């Protein structure tokens, strides 16, 4: 919670649940990433929070952008960034979307299979492509599935096809898992990338770039390492596996760029118990999984929750959203300790919610409005 957010909530008193995001925090985060890995280009993961104010600020600071759709490409261009600062990082693209991005000037695309290479060769001739490889994500609070990426042994075949079809076989990418708390997590993946570089060189194709993805955490309930610690560990791993011939490198921070910049203001709608002998209280908020807090699924992300009564005695509480859907329960397996004095109508502040909230909010589910957003 920054002073600017606190003052905004005190003076504006916005109605209903809302996210308030402080651009000063985003600015500080960008500078921190740029300093931690000075020879690495920062490609902000737009999907984390595509607010126009965020994109405009980062474009002015010199950031590049990782996009997942043509819509995001257009948003970045509207914010003032040139197309040569955009990567189309989604490995699942319609051919007409590839063509549209190419028409808009994008020349950097992700792939993870031969069929995607063929689409890009037809729709975006001569473009640079990088092949995403699978990574186990050990140490991440939100490990990624096998939806994106191919087995490392497949990557040379995919990249060689790109070369044969007239594309620029540019490099390799990976993602070590979201909210990655292990600063050494990049070491094994960079070793794998270096091996692919060597195999491609043996095939007469020189790769240039390693996209080291995101995974940089934001602080929720637990402490996380400093960005500089990640930078030091990544540089050590690059030197270990690539020696004096370091490749071009990219990172794609999303959560780490905007997560700690935002706070959601919510309200207690109801407090109840399920039986007379059940000590656990149910606290229902006016926001839930369908209106921005989807990352509470499986209780993977546990947000800090603040109230005006935090110095009072506390009791275990299940926290749920307001909708008529039984899935809309945020924390039940591990209840939260909330003040006994918390009452209906009280305001609660859900911190570190700047990433993956507004875009997860549904449009009108159960008649509730989407999560409002204020960028200050």
Automatic annotation (TrEMBL):
Cofactor(s) needed for function: pyridoxal 5'-phosphate
One BP term from GO: putrescine biosynthetic process from arginine, via ornithine
One GO CC term on file: cytoplasm
Family: Belongs to the Orn/Lys/Arg decarboxylase class-II family.
Name of this chain's protein: ornithine decarboxylase
Enzyme class: lyase
UniProt entry keywords in alphabetical sequence: Lyase, Pyridoxal phosphate
The protein's annotated pathway: Amine and polyamine biosynthesis; putrescine biosynthesis via L-ornithine pathway; putrescine from L-ornithine: step 1/1
SUPFAM superfamilies: Alanine racemase C-terminal domain-like, PLP-binding barrel
Gene Ontology molecular-function annotations: ornithine decarboxylase activity
Residues with the N6-(pyridoxal phosphate)lysine modification: 47
Species classification: Bacteria, Pseudomonadati, Pseudomonadota, Alphaproteobacteria, Hyphomicrobiales
Catalytic activity as recorded in UniProt: L-ornithine + H(+) = putrescine + CO2
Active-site residues per Swiss-Prot or TrEMBL entry: 324
The enzyme's E.C. designation: 4.1.1.17
Highest taxon of source: Bacteria
